[in-house]
Amino acid sequence: MELEVKRDRLVLRAGGGKWEWHIEPRYWRNPLIYVSILIIAPVVVYFVYPSLLATVIDANLLAAIAIPLALMSIGTGRMNFGPQFYIGIGGYAAALLSIHFGLNPALTLIAAALAGIVFGFIMSPLSIIAGGLYYSLLTLLLPLLFLEVTFIFSDLFKGDTGLSGIAPLVSTGSFSLNLLIYAFISLAMMLFYLFIIDKIFRSRYAVQMAAINDDEEVANGIGVNVNKTKIISFIIPAMMVAIVGWFYAHYYGAFSGQTYLPLSFMLKVFMVTMIGGRTQIYGCIIGGYFIAFLEMILIRTTGGMSPVLFPVILLALLLVLPEGLFGLYRKHHYREYMPTLRFRR
Amino acid sequence: MAEILKVTNISKHFGGLTAVNDVSFSINEGETVGLMGPNGAGKTTLVNMICGSYGADSGKIEFMGKDITKLPPWKRCKLGICRTYQIPRPFPELTALASVVVSALHGKDRPNRSLEDASTEATHYLEFVGLFSKRNILARDLTLFEMRGLELARALATEPKLIFIDEVMAGLNPVEAEKAVRLIERAKDQFGVTVLWIEHVMAVLMRAAERVIVLHYGEKIAEGSPQEVANNPLVIESYLGKSENA
């Protein structure tokens, strides 16, 4: 066996065979490399430090919320500040059906997705009638209103304590193994969302979304059905985020609006999108892992300081890294077409 | 020549201001019609109503015999109406090619058109307006003249039957203006579009238009050949004002 390092490749000769691996930077962008790292990481963590798997799951779920949010932002041309509303919808749909009707996770998954679609459809006209700051404020208020509803109808939603006794998704008997399986399910969900939305962003629909983003009136004038595009790109992410809510409910076996609906959770999701680069789907993964691990470190080192430190970090990022990490890369590679959101001030 | 657009008694009010009042006219297929009038005459409002950006308060708009008064802009575009803007409105974050691809994908119904088909066709329109070499430049980085060319390419890519050219000369130097006029004339010949040309510059319409409609304070005050309109006392008065001694 012989390993030879050339300028742009590694050449491995073994027996009669020859294998080449290109090491030029342009080949590093191969997504398979990063997907492999994401798949191998939980296995390594499982053997080295199993309790860290919970952070990996958190990271995957944060990215799984931020990725559909990017689609919603680009498709509607507006920033939704209340994606956690759909987590609440999906989570409560799964929790209530599992507890009161004994439905298994497969059935509650369908119910959560349907609930996401229905509520997404009901709320989608917001993206047509409201714009800019008004849209942001309305979407910001929705989860808070829902939180109030869970307190008002406390008999049903158990607003103060949360619903518990939800059937778990996995039960192998080993806590660590359960976590590993949950990590893979959350990773599969996140990668599936990434794959679907990446396909959308490389399709003809992306060009019309980008046009809507830049100038709705002109897009409408050249034949783009703006309202239809907005409604569809509102409903699909709503359903995807509702499914993340379903996962939260079955993962913890309990679901409380107080955990997911307040602004603190929105802030976390918002930071994921800011660090990765707003509306950059690949950046969401970087952002998800960064925030999940940062939160874990802050909780372990500063205790209850994270609610204070998070907004401070966010403000600092807004100042020094407005484009996000992936946005910086995109800025210099705009020819590789990928729609981005242009914020209306 | 068949009638392509018929506007009947159309009016538009913004609060107490009457922007367009009871205007009627028609355009025949293959014609180049000029629409002129002083600032604030209601030219752009009229075009906005025909394209669907504004709803008409009263009156009727028919395109190829079909009532389109209540149709949304995108449906009007699919029927064959498209426009350019007085102040260029490119898609700033899209490359020149992607901007035209949007039109090539939408606009007139073309079943089974893929993104690749649309990209190929978009390059054809970019080449026509002389922007092929700038296809990968972001639209916001183009010069004013190039933006106007891009707008024309974007409009032509929808395969329109009737195109509205809104004050294409604004902000262009004489050389660029001459190029723009020739470009529109070539577009008319090559793609067989009917043109409604809104313009301030009288000399351009005298040369390019077959018929001219003049608006003043939202009302149609004259219609006829460029020569007739140029000699019309009402038109002269609307542009130059009324002499105290007259």
Topology overview:
The complex is a heterodimer of chains A (345) and B (246).
Chain A: E1 2-5, E2 9-14, E3 17-22, H1 31-48, H2 53-76, H3 84-101, H4 105-123, H5 126-129, H6 132-152, H7 154-157, E4 163-164, H8 175-201, H9 204-214, H10 216-221, H11 226-252, E5 254-255, H12 257-260, H13 263-276, H14 281-302, H15 306-320, H16 324-331
Antiparallel strand pairs in A: 1-2, 2-3, 4-5
Helix pairs in contact in A: 1-8, 2-8, 2-11, 2-13, 2-14, 3-4, 3-6, 3-11, 4-11, 8-11, 13-14, 13-15, 13-16
Chain B: E1 3-14, E2 17-28, E3 32-36, H1 43-51, E4 58-63, E5 66-67, H2 73-79, E6 81-83, H3 96-105, H4 115-128, H5 144-156, E7 162-166, H6 174-191, E8 194-198, H7 202-208, E9 211-216, E10 219-224, H8 226-230, H9 233-240
Parallel strand pairs in B: 3-8, 3-9, 6-7, 7-8
Antiparallel strand pairs in B: 1-2, 1-4, 4-5, 9-10
Helix pairs in contact in B: 3-4, 3-5, 4-5, 5-6
Task: Note down, in words, how this protein is organized.
The complex is a heterodimer of chains A (about 350) and B (about 250). By secondary structure, chain A is mainly alpha-helical. Chain A has a single domain, classed as ABC transporter involved in vitamin B12 uptake, BtuC. Chain A is built from 16 helices and five strands. In chain A, the strands form two sheets. A three-stranded antiparallel beta sheet of chain A has the order 1-2-3, with no helix packed on it. In chain A, strands 4-5 form a two-stranded antiparallel ribbon. In chain A, a hairpin with a 3-residue loop joins strand 1 and strand 2. Chain A is globular, with a radius of gyration of 21 Å. The C terminus of chain A is likely disordered. Chain B is α/β, with parallel strands linked by helices and about 250 residues long. Helices cover about 35% and strands about 25% of the residues of chain B. Chain B is built from nine helices and ten strands. Chain B has a six-stranded mixed beta sheet with strand order 6-7-8-3-9-10, sandwiched between helices. The longest helix of chain B has 18 residues. The termini of chain B are far apart. The model of chain B has no long low-confidence stretch (mean pLDDT about 90). At the A-B interface, helix 9 and helix 10 of A face helix 2 and helix 3 of B.
